[in-house]
Amino acid sequence: MSQPIYAIVAEFGDPDDLLVAAEKVYAEGYRKVEAYSPFPVHGVAEALGNDCSKTRWTCFLSGVAGGLGGYQLAPDDTRSV
Amino acid sequence: MSAREKLNDDLILGKHTFRTINDKVNNVVLNQNSHTIPWAVCFMVGFMLLQLMGLVILWLLYRGIGIWGVNNPSMWGWDIINFVWWIGIGHAGTLISAILLLLKQSWRNSINRFAEAMTLFAVACAGLFPLLHTGRPYMAYWMFPYPNVLAMTPNFRSPLLWDVFAISTYATVSAVFWFLGLIPDLASLRDKSKNPIFKGIFGALAMGWRGAASHWQRYESAYIMLAGLSTPLVLSVHSIVSFDFAVANLPGWHVTLFPPYFVAGAVYAGFAMVLTLAIPVRAWYNMKDFITMRHIDWMAKVMLATGLIVFYGYLCEGFFSWYSGNVFEIDMMRFRMFGPYGWAYWMLILCNGIVPQFLWFPKIRTNLVALFIICQFVSLGMWLERFVIITVSLTRDFLPSSWGYFTPTIYDIGMFVGTVGQFTFLMFGFLRVLPMINNFEMKELLYRMTGRGHHHGHTAHALEPDLAGHTAGDGEEH
Amino acid sequence: MAQIFHPRANILAKFSLILLATGPLLLLLIGTGVSRASYNTKVGMVADQPVPFSHEHHVSELGIDCRYCHSNVENSAHATVPPTETCMSCHSQIWTNSPLLEPVRQSYKTNTPIKWAQVNKVPEFVYFNHSIHIKRGLNCNICHGSVQQMQLASKGKAFFMVWCLNCHRNPEKFVNDPDKVFSIYEKGLKGTDHEYADLLPEERDILNSGEHTRTPEELAKGEAWVKKFGIKKKQLADCWICHR
Asked: Which of A27, B53, B306, C5 could form a disulfide with C9 if both were Cys (CB 3.0 to 4.6 A apart)?
């Protein structure tokens, strides 16, 4: 009986090859894929189907909360002096 | 090579591959032998001056701020001058890291890291002054609005409170921005370091960075957002600092011109400081491939542009005080020029207005010695600018009976020299323990410069010079 | 490359991030709690006194007026703690053998004052004046808690600035008929078994705890008093009133 394959690792010498490979792998239907690079290679994350809309929303909502919180700091004492 | 040729340097010189960039940047941290005598001298001198400041602060806490030269009528003196000066210096870092990022200027890549570090350290120096001027620095938390048993909220109509928020926001955002940018580089150091202790430290700081595509995606979106946050700060922080004066009803201070010209002055002083550091450091650590003459040239040009704005500001001040027809404003200008502090005013005009005009000449911009000297003039000039604004107005207010003369004490000088020491100490400490150049951004820059779909072993050198500076957007579209 | 950290370290990393965000808030909460705790304010804590003098005994049971002992409270800044002579006006006749009173007799004989430990105190940089407050009908208990029930004197209120200001900004919530300041103790005595039967609700609250929230009618009366006294509300919370 052959051993089940857990994972396959491939190394690319050029960022562009990585990008092409990522697109192909995704097109083949693989989803549990990750690409590692020492600097951002634009498009790879998208090619692998990642999107970070959650991060954006979290940031936006935290920003709104922070802004509103900031206004709370101002005194409610509206006496005109 | 003629002067003009140097200006067309690529942003990365020499035959570099991803590996050589990586090794070169990491080597400064990983190979502790790369630090030579200049490093030791700067660090030790900085450290000694820092100790001196420690003594001054101890004495200050014991005796109170009366040991400074501040006294009626000049209740603000060197403390606020130094504060404004240092805060201004920090601005170049934020400008480089935030605004130039949003404008996709690739030339920020090799200078942003230490410019940001400079921002942080400058803010650390600046913050000391108002903190100590409160007299009871351990009560500094009173400056924040928090529910307290005194039923007191700081006065939201006071520019001094705006300062508190501006500076603390600035310090926080700058620190987060800086740290975020460091994470991938810390991971690289973790991976390359041989020493298990350093591996552990870098590893802990890198917080599990693996360089996965999903990491990079989040990283970049967070980085852009922080840049967006920092961009208004570049303008707002020094505007608010200028409100400390502009909101007050004092001749020479009550000027709508202050915010823009303070901001320009801040960037001006900041770039002078970046150059002051970059010129020697790139020579000592042989970083000439990364911080090229082109970088230096552009920084000098930014200095020239902001310098002209500042000079225009001085001219406007003179014009407006005359045009206002207000006797106090006119007299204020007279006192500035011909009063007891006239020497400071004319020095200021020389340092900030005249000397930088040499930067029009490419020969000067590529002459590192000349450039370095001009930067010192600018730093001095920016300090004098605050000195003139603050001391003259305070010692020559509406009532001749309350006029006076401000004289600093040795403790004022000690504090100032001490913060210079602190800055140097922190800066050179930083050079030793963290990568001074943004490692991964340089690799990315190389990738973008060489274009996609080319072969391996790219040499940036082979490119036409023009492409190098202007390919910033290239890698972007996909 | 060997693994430096165990996967569990991830939890630590996340925790440190959360702590970074919540830490300042936590510190604030702790600081808030500690500064208001009686450990810091000494509210309700009795001091070590040379004589275990009981207000409950002398005020509630014997019915002595505050002014018999705190003789200057109506017309000076300080209420004054009574001199030994005041005690001896009775204790030279009654309970002359009580061992508890020995320090009082000693003090009288040697002509040296008793060293009472002061429990209510504002810092030196705060100016406080009793007389104006009594003249504006403020009962002692509003500021000192229900003294007439204390076996041993203790601090009733923390004297935070916010507390002074709470009244100074809205004096109509407290000011009252000056004639009632001392009479309600007397009235309280007549009530059956400390139930203070024929007292108004406000008076009962003041006697019991010093705390009372005024009803709209009471507030209207308070406002009338403010007008009558000519209290300048706008000035009363100015810094120089208390920090001179």
From this structure: C5
Q: Measure the CA–CA gap between B343 and B347, rounded to whole angstroms.
A: 6
Rounded to the nearest angstrom, the gap between the alpha carbon of residue A4 and the centroid of all alpha carbons in its chain is 30
Domain of residue A57, residue span: 15-73
Domain count, chain B: 1
B212 beta partners: A36
**Any idea what the Cα angle at residue C171 is, between residues C168 and C176, rounded to 5°?**
140
Q: How large is the C-alpha radius of gyration of chain C? A: 24
Both tokens assigned to B466: 């023009």
Looking at chain A, which subunits does it touch, using at least 3 CB pairs closer than 8 Å as the criterion?
B
Q: Is C174 exposed, middle or buried (0-12, 13-18, 19+ CB in 10 A)?
A: buried
Q: Which of residues 144-183 of B touch A (CB under 8 A)?
A: 145, 153, 156
Interface with B, mutate which of C5, C12, C157 (most B CBs under 10 A): C5
Residues in chain A: 81
Kindly state the tokens that stand for A72: 């709370």
Tell whether A48 is within 8 A of chain B (Cβ).
yes
Number of domains in chain A: 1
pLDDT of residue C209: 87
Q: Establish if B453 touches chain A: CB-CB under 8 angstroms.
A: yes
Look up the domain containing B162 and give its range.
2-142+155-449
This prediction's pTM: 0.87
- The set of residues, in sequence order, having a beta carbon less than 8 Å from that of C221 and lying 6+ positions away, is none
| Average pLDDT of adjacent 10-residue blocks, chain C of 244 residues | 78 88 90 88 90 92 92 92 93 88 92 92 94 95 92 92 92 92 84 64 88 92 94 92 94
Structure tokens at B352: 């900030």
| Tens-digit pLDDT profile for residues A10-50 | 999 888 899 999 999 999 998 889 999 999 998 899 888 88
Q: What is the pLDDT of residues C35-91, one digit of tens each?
A: 888 888 889 889 899 999 999 989 988 889 999 999 999 999 999 899 999 999 999
Inside any domain, residue A36: yes
Out of A13, A22, A55, the one facing B456 most closely (by C-beta) is A13
Q: What is the CA radius of gyration of chain A?
A: 23
The tokens of C191 are what? Answer: 């009530």
In sequence order, the β-bridge partners of residue C43 are: C155
Q: What is the CA radius of gyration of chain B?
A: 23
Amino acid residing at B222? A
B198: CATH: 1.20.1630.10
Q: How many CB pairs under 8 A join B and C?
A: 34
Cα–Cα nearest to B347, from B300, B393, B318, B379: B379
Kindly tell me the sign of the dihedral angle through the C-alpha atoms of B38, B39, B42, B45. Answer: negative
Q: How much is the ipTM here?
A: 0.87
Say whether A5 sits in a helix, a strand or coil.
Answer: coil
> Which residue of chain A comes nearest to B477, CA vs CA?
A42
Helix, strand, coil percentages, rounded to 5, for chain B: 75, 0, 25
The interaxial angle of helices B112-133 and B159-192, nearest 10 deg, is: 140
Q: Where are the strands (E) in A1-81, listed by range? A: none
Rounded CA separation B290/B13 (Å): 7
